[in-house]
Design goal:
This protein is an alpha+beta fold. The protein is 39% helix and 26% strand. The protein contains 17 helices and 20 strands. The mean pLDDT is 85.
Length: 501
């Protein structure tokens, strides 16, 4: 008894037979109980000292249990809490009878279960948390829009989600697992299991496209089989599988291919040279204008021509711009396949004097689309036109008379320096292309002697616009007379000459 880790309180009855053994009872409090309950009187404590360690409610309940034990021999086991330190105790009451029929003892054992209770509470909370987390994971899986399943080490189905049940037309998960019901692929039912077996053997994610009939329609799905090892189990992996609906994506790819082919057919008929180099930098499309522009042979085109080889070929034929470092130029050209994100335009000035306009654009399927156009004639025409304009300006500036030209839109298009000197007009104002009415307003200060300026201005405009008017003379306030002559040019412009008399 002294060695027991539990405390006890004993009601000991006399050994000899007496008429009323309750009158000769001895009570004993163990040393362990005195320490456990922190009793001031130690082993000399009485049972009412023990009751005082509990709340009134627990003390009353304990007193009833002990009374039933001593009076009727009814055993009990109850949990009580000490009122001072809130320790939990399990109290067990039991009667000891001898073989001779004597009543020897009624004992109450006191066991401190506070630590065990705390552990039980912790484990219960942990269990509840795990159950909640498990339920959350199951909810996530069940609300995914595609089927998900788990295979054990033998590749048997061990778990499926709600969408899987929908695909196999079942509402009982356990029946599906018991019967090992596989998804109904159009090719063969074991197609998914075969992919899982391959994933397990190679220990690598496996993908494949399968067809499944859903709601009367043949749909395309991408099957993903992903192997994994459980913790502390590296013998054989389990496999998680899922189906992703790619029907719409397949349709889009098919439509895209149709549109691409249609576009390529159109490009093939155009006079502009077009070529497509794919993501591997190999020539995948070209039109007749492309082969003619770069003088490519059928053999060169049929040998899966790479972009690097294409650059090398046109360099040999002196159709590539002269560059100081060809290797650096070639590297920059190849890098463009990864750097060109939007259409880019540049000019290629070839050694033969021709100029090629090149446009590079990213292709939707990877690679670049090239458009080449010989703009040599266009540039030559532009240079000739610019030279003609410059010559016209030089001719106008060498005239002694002031000259202005209004375009068919009624806005000023040209003037010479003699006009600036004659009317003292700011050149910045003329560069804004004013109309004839605005220009006359700038010259208003030279006609301060005119009483009705608006009428006078309208009269000038009418004379200029009248084709029958050969010329007319304006007398300025400073006494200088200006002869105005207007001529209609072939493009609809009007040239007005201002001659100082």
């Amino acid at each position: 008894l002294y060695a027991s880790k539990d405390g006890y309180y004993a009601f000991i009855y006399p050994d000899e037979k007496v008429n009323d053994p309750q009158n000769f009872v001895k009570e004993r409090c163990s040393r362990r109980l005195a320490v456990l309950l922190n009793l001031e009187k130690g082993t000399n404590s009485r049972f009412f000292d023990v009751l005082a360690c509990f709340s009134d409610e627990d003390a009353e309940s304990l007193q009833k249990c002990v009374s039933r034990l001593r009076e009727d021999g009814v055993s009990f086991e109850e949990t009580f809490v000490l009122k001072n330190n809130r320790q939990q105790l399990i109290l067990t009451g039991a009667r000891i009878n001898g073989n001779d029929g004597n009543l020897y003892c009624d004992m109450i054992w006191f066991r401190d279960v506070s630590e065990d209770a705390a552990k039980i509470t912790f484990l219960k909370n942990e269990k509840d948390s795990i159950l909640r987390h498990s339920q959350q994971l199951e909810d996530i899986l069940n609300h995914l829009p595609y089927p998900v399943w788990l295979r054990d080490e033998q590749l048997n189905l061990s778990s499926v989600n709600k969408k899987y049940l929908e695909f196999v037309n079942s509402d009982n998960k356990w029946d599906v697992l018991k019967n090992q019901t596989e998804l109904p692929c159009a090719a063969e039912a074991s197609l998914l299991k075969q992919a899982a077996e391959q994933a397990q053997e190679l220990n690598r994610l496996q993908k494949q496209t399968v067809n499944i009939v859903r709601k009367g329609q043949l749909c395309s799905f991408e099957d993903w089989e992903s192997p994994f090892y459980e913790q502390d189990n590296n013998k054989k992996s389990k496999v998680v599988g899922t189906l992703i609906d790619v029907t719409e994506l397949d349709n889009l790819k098919r439509n895209l291919k149709i549109h691409q082919n249609a576009h390529l057919e159109i490009l093939g008929t155009l006079g502009t040279a077009f070529a497509v180099f794919d993501k591997d930098k190999n020539l995948s499309f070209y039109n007749k204008a492309f082969t003619e522009l770069w003088h490519l042979t059928a053999d060169e085109l049929e040998n899966n021509l790479s972009y690097t080889a294409f650059i090398e070929i046109i360099r040999e034929r002196q159709l590539l711009p002269e560059v100081p470092d060809f290797r650096s130029y070639l590297n920059d050209e190849v890098k463009a396949f990864n750097s060109v994100l939007e259409p880019k335009e540049d000019l290629l000035h070839l050694p033969n004097g021709n100029t090629i306009r090149r446009v590079r654009s990213p292709h939707p399927m990877g690679g670049l689309v090239f458009a080449f156009e010989d703009v040599s004639d266009r540039l030559a025409t532009r240079r000739a036109y610019n030279a003609l304009l410059q010559l016209q300006e030089e001719i106008l500036d060498n005239l002694f008379d002031g000259v202005i030209i209004f375009g068919s839109s009624g806005r000023l298009k040209a003037y010479n320096h003699a006009y600036l000197s004659l009317w003292n007009v700011e050149e910045l104002f003329l560069q804004k292309e004013p109309g004839i009415s605005e220009l006359l307003e700038e010259e208003k200060s030279f006609f301060s002697h005119i009483e009705n300026w608006e009428e006078f201005k309208e009269d000038i405009i009418a004379h200029i616009a009248n084709a029958r008017t050969k010329s007319f003379i304006l007398t300025r306030s400073d006494g200088i007379k200006i002869e105005i002559l207007s001529s209609l040019l072939s493009d609809g412009s009007v040239m007005i000459t201002n001659r100082k008399l």
